[in-house]
Amino acid sequence: MVKLYMGLDVHKEKTVIALAPAGSQDVEHYGNCSSDMVRLAGSIRKILRKYDLSKAEVSICYEAGPCGFAIARHLLGKGFDVIVVAPSLIPTKKGDRVKTDKRDARKLARTHRSGDLTPVHIPDPADEVIRDLCRARTDAVDDSVRNRQRLLSFLLRNGHTYTGRSNWTETHLRYLRSLELNNPVQRLILEEYLQAVDAGFERISGLEEHIRDQMQSWHRLPFVHALQGLKGFEFISSMVVASELGDITRFDHPRKLMAYLGLVPAEESSGDHRRQGPITKCGNSHVRWMLVEIAGSYRYAPKVSKALSIRQEKLPREVKELSWRAQKRLCKRYSRLTMRRVHANKIKVAIARELCSFIWELAHLMAKMPQRKAA
Question: Into how many domains does the chain fold?
Fold first, then answer.
């Protein structure tokens, strides 16, 4: 039985602690301590000794933020009851305009005691390693795109325009390296841009190689292979979705997965009037962006292409059937929305929302596969 609720306002160097005893309306500001995991655990033990409590009688919470989940994992490993809560779902008073670390810690302790906090999923350490690799690759791609755009803008300002079929092919790169600029300073600038572009390509390929190495020992590798059996999913996109979402079976209904990704419409209904707005855009924006991009591939007629058939070669029959069913359903819906002249971006979001249900079904299907084999 929990006798003490503890709210931690965690920052880079300092953590503010507030205590809310069970069965009481009081909330006590205990003090500050270091955010170092070992020292923080030591401060919590001092509180237990002061109030003569066991670990099972204390429940701790703090906001999800830039400090990540390392503190939660450390305290859970020491036997404490810890939850990490979503900052956007913490109840707030509309007229409360004063925000301090002490107030935040007291609010966390108070709302944790009342049961009004929504905990977030604490990812597995292996999932977080793969997720960081995938995010590092995304950052590398963003930097590479910026460097390439700067190079093209520099050349355009100086009257050089490539007339070939497409940019950044081997032919285009040979053209860039063969350019002759009159001013030696401009030749130096061109060479700096070219080296930055080459370094960006090498950085991306190096990170992709690290991802392929790490995935061989990852426990979600079967789900990644199964995800590639769906239309639009290739290696990188499958790794991103699997690493960002983690254990999808924790969602007991596909609508909860859609809401987690912020793909459900906002709503302000009252009485008999129902008014829906744009999607909420809550939750994981990285996966939401990835699914919206993948949804565009369902504008084409259902077909098992050569590339898709290669990815499906060693997959179970149930996964192939689910993939074909998803193609027929989503391609038909894409066509109907297009005929209704719905905006292209809205169509992609609608298809991405329905795609979540097939991903949810695939995760539950793969979770049952070992049990079937064992039987």
Answer: 3
d(CA 291, CA 227): 12
DSSP character at residue 193: H
- Residue range(s) defining the domain that contains residue 276: 221-374
Please say whether the beta carbons of 24 and 112 come within 8 A.
no
pLDDT in tens, 306-317: 999 999 999 999
Q: Which of 215, 233, 250 is the last residue of a domain?
A: 215
What integer pLDDT is reported at residue 15 of this predicted model? 96
Where are the alpha helices (H) located in the chain, listed in sequence order?
A: 37-51, 70-77, 101-114, 125-157, 170-177, 184-215, 221-227, 235-245, 254-260, 285-295, 306-311, 317-339, 344-374
The pair of structure tokens assigned to 5 is 């609720």
Say if CB 130 and CB 215 are below 8 A apart: yes
Q: Nearest CA to 357 among 238, 276, 261, 270?
A: 261
Instruction: Looking at the structure, tell me whether residues 206 and 318 fall in a common domain.
Output: no
263 and 367 within one domain: yes
With tokens 């999808």, the residue in question is 248
pTM metric for this prediction: 0.88
- Rounded Cα–Cα distance for residues 220 and 241 (Å): 11
Asked if residue 120 is part of any domain, the answer here is: no
One-letter amino acid of 265: P
HSE of 30, CA atoms in CB hemisphere, 13 A: 25
Eight-class DSSP state of 301? P
Same domain, 170 and 290: no
* Distance between CA atoms of residues 341 and 347, nearest Å: 9
What is each CA distance from 23 to 3, 145, 231, 265, 351, in whole angstroms? Answer: 8, 57, 54, 39, 48
Residues 338-374 pLDDT 10s: 999 999 999 999 999 999 999 999 999 999 886 444 3
One domain, residues 241 and 334: yes
Low-confidence ranges of the chain (pLDDT < 50): 371-375
- Does residue 256 share a domain with residue 166? no
The CA distance from 229 to 233, in Å, is 7
